[in-house]
Backbone:
């Protein structure tokens, strides 16, 4: 039975590899990729362990993942514009990283949105999107939400179940909803 699991794992990794624009070596991939429109780019570096779901919403969506990144199961990365995750980042389980509000805040527009969504003609021009950048050595705690337009600085730590709506300075620990600064970290605290 163990050999069957290995075959399934290799098949899934090959499938993911085909959906990526560029792909490094030594990757362990347990991710699911959803392309809601053709094209979109996913670039994956080397030495990564990636689980969860990556969603490319439009043709120009771009997810960039560096080297030696760990993304745990249950994490959703939902990209309309651009999400960049640098080297040595740890993202725990059940996190949500999204560069969009997903729908208009106008109720009448949302009714139209749902009809268009079902027909595959969703209009993203009514929805606010801004890129996300998670810099080298950051650690995102379990069930955290990283919202549109946020940059997580180098070596920063986001506490469990935090909702990050603003940039996080390098070597800073943030937590809460909305996330706020708990303390500044020394470079040696960040582990590199």
Residues:
């Amino acid at each position: 039975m163990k050999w069957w699991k290995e075959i399934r794992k290799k098949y899934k990794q090959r499938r993911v590899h085909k959906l990526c624009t560029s792909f490094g070596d030594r990757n362990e991939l347990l991710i699911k990729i959803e392309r809601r429109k053709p094209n979109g780019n996913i670039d994956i570096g080397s030495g990564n362990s990636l689980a969860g779901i990556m969603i490319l919403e439009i043709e120009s969506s771009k997810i960039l993942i560096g080297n030696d990144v760990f993304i745990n199961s249950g994490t959703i990365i939902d990209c309309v514009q651009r999400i960049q995750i640098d080297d040595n980042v740890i993202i725990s389980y059940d996190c949500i990283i999204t560069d969009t509000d997903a729908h208009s805040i106008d109720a009448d527009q949302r009714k139209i949105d749902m009809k268009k969504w079902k027909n595959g003609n969703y209009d993203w021009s009514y929805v606010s999107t801004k890129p996300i950048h998670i810099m080298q050595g950051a650690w995102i705690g379990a069930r955290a939400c990283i919202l549109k337009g946020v940059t997580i600085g180098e070596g920063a730590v986001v506490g469990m179940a935090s909702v990050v709506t603003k940039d996080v300075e390098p070597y800073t620990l943030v937590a809460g909803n909305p996330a706020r600064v708990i303390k500044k970290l020394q470079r040696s605290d960040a582990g590199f």
